[in-house]
Amino acid sequence: MNRNKQNTAVILIYIIGFTIGTISHSIDIIKMGLLGYTFAPFILNAFWSSLVFIDPLVIILLFINFKTAITIAVLVMIFDILFNLIFGLCTLNYPILLGLITQVPFGIFVFYTANHLLRSGSLKDYLNSKLS
């Protein structure tokens, strides 16, 4: 795989991951309504509901404000994993804990790649750069 293809693959993984998040939270809102996570404290309910807007925002920002997109991606993954893990363990909410099976590897990927991505000023710069 040449450098450009590797960089493209990294961006595609971000897009796929945040698209899955968008779809997941959209399905929840369709089923339960906005702020429908009533089983959780309001702050978690609001955070999880807000991801239906924040996840696609990350994707859009990849194209128009690359560094902001990567920063938000890192923050979303930190808080989503942390909140899901703490709430899931404290309440033994198995569906939330099961969600961590995919969230944690994606989060690790985001954390691992973020520093390198932040060295580029734009998506175009990153896609045309060589990996170091």
Automatic annotation (TrEMBL):
Keyword line: Membrane, Transmembrane, Transmembrane helix
Residues passing through the membrane, by range: 7-27, 39-63, 70-88, 94-114
Domain of life according to the entry: Bacteria
Protein name: Uncharacterized protein
Native source organism of the sequence: Leptospira soteropolitanensis
